[in-house]
Write a structure and sequence with these properties.
CATH architecture: Alpha-Beta Barrel
Distance between the termini: 20 Å
Structural class: alpha/beta
Number of helices: 13
Number of strands: 12
CATH superfamily: Luciferase-like domain
Number of domains: 1
Strand order of the largest sheet: 1-2-3-5-8-9-10-12
Largest sheet: 8 strands, parallel, barrel
Shape: globular
Helix content: 40-55%
């Protein structure tokens, strides 16, 4: 199976300079191809040190110039914040720079601070996403953008450079709420799973996505891409310490940035799911939720990490993993050791997994006990 490297460019507490963060993570990116990773991914974020990734296609173009074969993906590009023509131009250009190595991940966004910064009402995000996605997907295939919707009024324009090759099979969308999962299936794109809910709920969402995808397209859906934050150490106690320090701190930063405790989401169209989540957090406490988020990720000795990821692959019929090795307030030296150990001992075992056949869902008791 293909395994990608995810990069966060986080500077949560300003203990180092932004330049130091970029110097460190760019060094990881420049070595990823030689380490055996099949792709490099980074999310889009703005305005804070949560993730300093405001222009992902620009970063991926830099990676394209450093590499020869590695694929280049976004986790994700947030469509409601951008003119779809500009997104299409960016990814057509990236495809030419990299000779067809681009992968487009898309989403509708959740960061309220980011919506406010772009002067885009969150309540419009779901409808904007659908219109922008339809126009974008059509434009990437045809080289022409034209759309007449409620929010997008785009007269016919030709996109140049023309498409390098079809993006079919190279578009994935993140979805957490059940409504978004169904929307991605109707758009005929693959699903990207970023762990934020119990695994049994993820399993239900995947079944709903696959059912709708088959009904809409008459074909089998793409295997999902799963994002995993991994803390790995040869010493079990140190691996546990990495979980307690860095995975939990990453979870805290995520809860804070996305305002998971904000009950106002209940009154914002398209974000009702997060309003219900905020009520649950108020009842059980934010730190309990942060511990839950941390435990959705992967940690342990190399053989334990491999086993957990293999079980996840089997349960959800995963087609690709995206592994993040630097996150939270993890010092650079710890992150470098984590990255190198994962590349040396975990990556080869994952790449040996055959994902050509359909996996058995929930085949063993160990699946439910670990996930």
């Amino acid at each position: 199976m293909d395994v990608g490297l995810g990069l966060t460019f986080q500077n949560l507490h300003d203990r180092v300079s932004d330049a130091d963060v970029f110097r460190h993570e760019l060094s990881l990116a420049s070595r990823a191809e030689d380490q055996g990773f099949d792709s490099i991914w980074t999310p889009e974020h703005h305005f804070t040190g949560y993730m300093m990734t405001p222009n992902v296609p620009q970063f991926l173009s830099w990676v394209a110039g450093q590499t020869k074969r590695i694929k280049l993906g976004t986790t994700v590009t947030v469509l409601p914040w951008h003119n779809p023509v500009r997104i299409a131009e960016s990814f057509l250009l990236l495809d030419h720079y990299s000779e067809g190595r681009a992968i487009l991940g898309v989403g509708r966004g959740l960061g309220k601070e980011e919506f406010d910064g772009f002067n885009v009402p969150m309540g419009e995000a779901r409808k904007r996403f659908r219109e922008y996605a339809e126009a974008l997907l059509q434009g990437l295939e045809s080289g022409v953008m034209e759309y007449d919707g409620e929010y997008l009024k785009q007269k016919r324009v030709e996109l140049r450079p023309r498409p390098y090759s079809s993006y079919s099979g190279r578009v994935f969308a993140s979805a957490v709420s059940p409504e978004s999962v169904k929307l991605m299936a109707s758009l005929n794109v693959g699903l990207m799973i970023i762990a934020q809910k119990p695994w049994n709920r993820v399993e239900e969402d995947l079944e709903a996505y696959r059912s709708r995808f088959r009904a809409m397209s008459g074909a089998e859906p793409p295997k999902p891409v799963v994002v995993a934050f991994v803390a790995c150490n040869e010493d079990q106690a140190k691996a546990k310490e990495m979980r307690d320090k860095y995975l939990v701190e990453y979870a805290r930063s995520t809860s804070s940035f996305y305002q998971f405790g904000n009950k106002e989401f209940a009154s914002i169209e398209g974000y009702e799911y997060y309003g219900a989540l905020a009520n649950s957090i108020e009842k059980n406490g934010i730190e309990k939720f942060n511990e839950f988020l941390a435990d959705l990720q992967i940690w342990g000795r190399p053989e334990e990490v491999i086993e957990k990821l293999k079980i996840m692959q089997e349960r959800f019929d995963v087609g690709k993993f995206i592994i993040y090795t630097q996150f939270g307030d993890m010092p650079f030296d710890v992150g470098r050791e984590n990255y190198e150990l994962v590349a040396r001992k975990v990556l080869p075992a994952l790449k040996d997994i055959d994902v050509s056949a359909r996996g058995e869902s929930g085949a063993s008791s160990s699946v439910n006990s670990i996930l």
